Amino acid sequence: MTEIIIHHYPASPVSEKIRTGMGLKQLSWRSVEQNRLPDRPELFAMTGGYRRIPVMQIGADIYCDTQCILREMERRVPTPTFFPNNGAGLPFALSRWSDGAMFELAFRVAFAPVADKLPAALIADRTRLYLGEQGDLKNEAADLPHTLAQLRPQLGWLEACLTSGQHFMLGGEPGMSDLLAWYFVWFVRERYAAAPEFMAEFPLLNAWVQRMQAIGHGKSTPMTPVEALAIAKAAEPATQEKSDPHDPQGLSPGMKVTVVPITHGGDQPVEGKVLAVDRDTIAISREHPDCGRVAVHFPRVGYRVTLR
């Protein structure tokens, strides 16, 4: 298999989900550290301007969004599995909670108390991305007790998953459900100064944190963005044309489309031609002088595909 390249940066909580996924599967991978702010010219050449992190690259196939990344990792490396209890559908359903309402709470708790100490450009970018154009972290700082009151019982839900003595969220082995919980717990613990006191009432969850830390990140070796771009240019997408006769939008290979997250964060649509489409994912073909032809993969859930 062509080596796995992960575009990320160390402080990214969403990237921590994928880094720990690499550890769970005991994989070796190439680590491309990107800028925290969306000034990533080599990556943008490959993704068509998709600004979210992480992104997984395998040759000239580019995988956006952790839904898509985790699904492809499982397909390529099925053992150890992300679904140890044969419950592949449930974690993807849970991700709509963890990546939505729960992560927004974690963002407020992590950023609001220190908004005046962080670079203004970073605060403006992340506020727009997660809270929308009208977001205001000064208001969020004043509202922190309410936010913590919302976060606390939901952490209690995670604690309750562990009360039967099992070591992980859905049983004795870690899986995707643990990755979904881990990344926002990691975020709060890393960024909220009062996290130790706030989380002290969850002893089972804190013990689970130690088990998740022990999983590690697999074995990574660094690679520069320029090197990753050259790999894409030297390769051809491995993805073959694929149609879905049941697609509600009637999408088929060759159609010109745009793909954009369904959020209020101001993301720019990515343009391309449909290469492969099924119930769960869409891959679009696009070209750029710096990387040649690439296939950019997105999940269907959480993204709007529009015919051009």
TrEMBL record:
PROSITE patterns: GST_CTER, GST_NTER. The keyword Transferase applies. Coiled coil: none annotated. One of its GO terms (molecular function) is transferase activity. The keyword rRNA-binding does not apply. Keywords: Transferase. Residues 2-81 form the GST N-terminal domain. CDD domains: GST_C_family, GST_N_family. Gene3D superfamilies: 3.40.30.110. InterPro entries: Glutathione-S-Trfase_C-like, Glutathione-S-Trfase_C_sf, Glutathione_S-Trfase_N, Thioredoxin-like_sf. Residues 100-241 form the GST C-terminal domain. This is Probable glutathione s-transferase protein. The lineage of its organism: Bacteria, Pseudomonadati, Pseudomonadota, Betaproteobacteria, Nitrosomonadales.
